[in-house]
Amino acid sequence: MTNLSVNGHVDSIWRERPGDGPLIATAVHDGHAARDEVAALFAIDDAARLREEDPFTRQWVDVAPTTIVGLRSRFEVDLNRPRDKAVYRKPEDAWGLHVWKHDPPEEVVGRSLAEYDRFYEAMRQLLKRTEQQHRLFVVYDLHSYNHRREGPDGPEADAEGNPQVNIGTGTMDRARWAPVVDRLIHDLREFDFPGGKLDVRENVKFQGGQWSRWIGETFPQSGIPIAIEFKKFFMDEWTGRPNLEIVDAIGKALDSTVPGVLSVLEELQSSRRS
Question: What are the residues whose beta carbons fall under 8 Å from the beta carbon of 209, sequence distance 6 or more?
């Protein structure tokens, strides 16, 4: 997984921690670093990039024995977009932001897409091994999203259209895997969260991205990808400062779902064997 220079060092685009069990947690948008040749082309500043990335999501992946964390900024290559959209070319690809000083050279884009290809090939191998060992597996595809886009002093977005937790199931076979999804939603809603129960709803803000879609399409009989998006109520999205108590509580809420999800998964396994 080694790649080109990042801040003068050879680095990889993701960190993988293999473990034993059918649950995998990923945070593909946690990264902020960029290859030196890419960073030199950025017109966008660090603060603007950070606002659109998913900081602190890596702290939640430890609910699963197998974890995947993105180490590079989505502005270098976005692992949750289709390949032809994985490098943002135009402002409309990136929330209207002007990412580049000028169009990035095709050889730079090509190296970014080669990283994308290496990631997906490695994930194919990892998930194939998991399928062989456990037959069924669940992926918690963890993300966060902004809700104060009108500026640091602007209002929060309407809560009706911006739940604290958005469960994206539009890119998976919802009917087939309903018992798993329903149990996850139930247990998140029941968790004793600071300040009151979490507002957890399905497909309100997002329906899931390319990473979840690819898992479902590549492993249609065995992979259960669930995109879990947390509104950035756990941090100030303009300063980047987290509320560590809430960050920790989200991790505990996710952890509370694991026994139930694994229990339902075992029931599905048993029904297949019978």
Answer: 80, 81, 141, 143, 168, 171, 227
